[in-house]
Amino acid sequence: MPLFFTDASWCNGSTAVSGSACLGSNPNEATTLEHVTAANPVTPIAAVATAPGAAGVCVVRVSGAGALAVGDRLIPENVRKPSIRAAGTFFHTAVIDPATRERVDDAVMLVYRAPHSYTGENTLEIQGHGGIVSSRRLLEAVLAAGARLAAPGEFTRRAFLNGRIDLTQAEAVCDLIMAKTDRAALAAVMQLEGILGRNVGASYAVLLEICAEVEHLLDFDEGELPCAFAERVAGQLADVLSDMERLAGTWHEGQLLREGALVVISGRPNAGKSSLLNALLGHERAIVHDQPGTTRDVIEEFYALNGVPLRLVDTAGLRDSANAVEREGVGRARVLIERSDLNIHVVDGSAAAGHHEAFAELAALPLHKTVLAISKTDLPQFAPPPIFEGLISVRVSAKSGAGLEALKAALSRLLELNDTDDSRAAVSQRHVDALREGIMQARDAAALLSAPAPDLAVVACCLRAAAEALGRIIGRVYTDDLLDAVFSRFCVGK
Predict the structure, then answer these.
(1) How far apart (Å, rounded) are the C-alpha atoms in residues 441 and 20?
(2) Dihedral through CA 207, CA 209, CA 215, CA 217, nearest 10?
(3) Is 378 helix (H, G, I), strand (E, B) or coil?
(4) 3-state DSSP: the chain helix, strand, coil percent, rounded to 5?
(5) What is the CATH number of the domain that holds 468?
(6) Which of 1-15, 200-214, 247-261, 346-360 is the most confident on average?
């Protein structure tokens, strides 16, 4: 696992590459360490860490007290046991079912010793053959040897609880796995490297320092307060508030990168909606036909715009219809338009006679999130409608591609996207909720300090609440419910 094993020492057989970091380079010492770990027994956890299906390799990870002893039960008697091998050792062996002693697979086993592992615990990684059946058999053998199946995100949860990573880095692991674009992956990597955690941690430390100083002064009489104390602390709070507000300002970008945006293509029948969808995607996804009402259900496709994932949805043509199926499609289209982050409303620029109906339909749409796409500019009879006041409009041709870049630019402006390189981690909804609470409490503390005779007890209360809000972001303050909510997003095996 490359993400957090950088300080583990790798060994070949029993020879350590870096003895200073190799905790178990002495076989006797390794045995002693295993016995010490086993003195506080906790059932080790195990899971398949690779994706299901046909593959060259399947990885089963085992972590916790007794993890290496699980490996002892999985190998033939004549093979040196993992529990007495050096940290970073990897070796080839047959894997044996501990109950039947039948051969399950051939594998490479890797030994990690606490604290130099992803979880901070003794860890055994078993690399067997890929495939649905072989991975299942390997996992079943591991469970039969004394491990239990890991819960979703339990490996990363243990990494957090053992101090290997903070809570923002734990969340970044999941964001990186789920990233749909390079830009989303880069933002996750920035957070995984600790940029967000360090920024929040710095503000958290300053708030705690100010709070401790204020609490220390609670026993002083008002006249004994240090000179210019309130002014100095107010300046520190102003700097912290500026940092928190800057971080909170990245929420929009973070939300788009993690969740994407719902972009609906709407319009009357035969306006060119499906053709526009195909042109944006660069392949024939939706059926295009001269007969009105061809699209009767929603068609959704992934599309990346400036590195931001979009859910691009083609919808049924907006019109009254006697056909029950088409009416259902129109109803779904209207619901999606209301829920959308952006709406591309397509008007047929070659059908001048239909402009009145098209604009009547447009007037009923949410104009603040709508881009007007006037289609079919390549046709000889193209006659664009008059400009609709206050609405971004773009002329496009799905056939020639003319206007597509202008349309993408218009969508980017409405989504407030930019092409700049992401050099920071953007906060999530959980982060921004905590930041807003911290900002509110810090502002209250600053306002109280500006009073002629500040009540330091109330100031201290506000400062501690602000610090606790930031502490929840990085995991300095947490509850089981918070951890359950964070790690429930993870897959089993991570």
Answers:
(1) 47
(2) -120
(3) coil
(4) 45, 15, 40
(5) 1.20.120.430
(6) 200-214
Q: Which of 106-120, 188-202, 346-360, 476-490 has the lowest mean pLDDT?
A: 346-360
- What's the total number of domains in the chain? 3
Pairing of strands 15-16, 261-267: unpaired
The reported pLDDT for the residue numbered 321 is: 60
Same structural domain for residues 477 and 407? Answer: no
Mean pLDDT of 337-357: 77
Reported pTM: 0.77
**Alpha-carbon span 329 to 317, nearest angstrom:** 8
Do 304 and 343 belong together in one domain? yes
| 3-class secondary structure, 463 | helix
Residue 162: inside a domain, yes or no?
no
Residue 161 lies inside a defined structural domain of this protein: no
366: confidence class by pLDDT, cuts 50, 70, 90: confident
In which domain, by residue range, is 69 found?
Answer: 11-150
CA distance 370 to 393: 9
- Judgement on whether residues 298 and 192 belong to the same structural domain of the protein: no
